[in-house]
Amino acid sequence: MKKYLIVHYNDRKKAKKLNVLWDKKEKKWYYEEDNKNIEEILSLFKEDECKEIELIGEDRTFGNNELYIDMIPKTSYFKNVRSLFTKEDWDIIRHHIYKRVNNKCECCGCHRNKYLEAHERWSYNYEEGIQKLERIIALCKLCHSAVHYGHSKMKKNMDKINDHIKKVKNINDEELEKHIKDSRELWKDRNKIEWKLDLSIISNSGFCIIENNNNTD
To answer: What is the pTM of this model?
Structure first.
């Protein structure tokens, strides 16, 4: 019988060494009851209790399912859900996001990637200086790299990412260049403000922000 676990992405190598396996259908890690490493496994990982959650106030129509470059302002670096909540809470949240879309990328619809990634979509109220989390969306690696275009440009194959953006958005080279330029200008404009984060869709759903948390991996 399979026993599912909450295994953070960065801990997957530790899990594999203990004969913890990946369930491709459920998109979760698990161990069998006859695993000889159960004691060590449970000392490192929590069992997945399949907790059902609801993100209260989330607007799942925000941004539709369109793929677009959406770079985070410099003044908000390292202030995302993953860094402000525990790893366990983040795993519960992101697996909820993947499950509700049947483990498919919400932008390109692909189902071929071993791992999906959760991306936060924000609204920006310039008058009040509030950056509000509106929605969390499930993306494949390519779509997520496209969204964080500035970060990806420092270390990734941009030809592949550019081709992916053009294919998903059905645009040509000229239109892509305009989209990149417009996105960069918007990012520069947002960098001028010290944003106050509104994470109410998470905090109002039973999850607590960690005070002075430095977890940014």
So the answer is: 0.76
Q: How does pLDDT run across 94-139, given as a tens digit for each residue?
A: 888 998 998 899 999 987 555 789 999 999 999 999 999 999 999 9
Q: Evaluate whether 90 touches 81 at the Cβ level (below 8 Å).
A: yes
Euclidean distance between CA atoms 170 and 11, whole angstroms: 37
**φ, ψ at 3 (rounded to 5°):** -115, 110
> What tokens does 33 get?
């009851």
Report which DSSP code applies to 54: -
176 to 62, 87, 165, 187: CA distances (angstroms): 22, 36, 8, 16
Whether the Cβ atoms of residue 148 and residue 67 lie closer than 8 Å to each other:
no
C-beta of residue 71 within 8 angstroms of C-beta of residue 183: yes
**Which DSSP helix (H) or strand (E) runs through 47?**
strand 46-47
- φ, ψ of residue 138 in degrees (nearest 5): -90, 125
Candidates 137, 117, 118; CA nearest to 63 is: 137
Average model confidence (pLDDT) across the chain: 88
The answer to whether 14 and 37 have CB atoms below 8 angstroms apart is no
Place of tokens 């592949």: 160
Spatial contact of 194 and 130, defined as CB atoms under 8 Å apart: no
Name which of 87, 16, 96, 13 is nearest 49 in CA terms: 96
Give the separation between CA 146 and CA 153, rounded to whole angstroms: 9
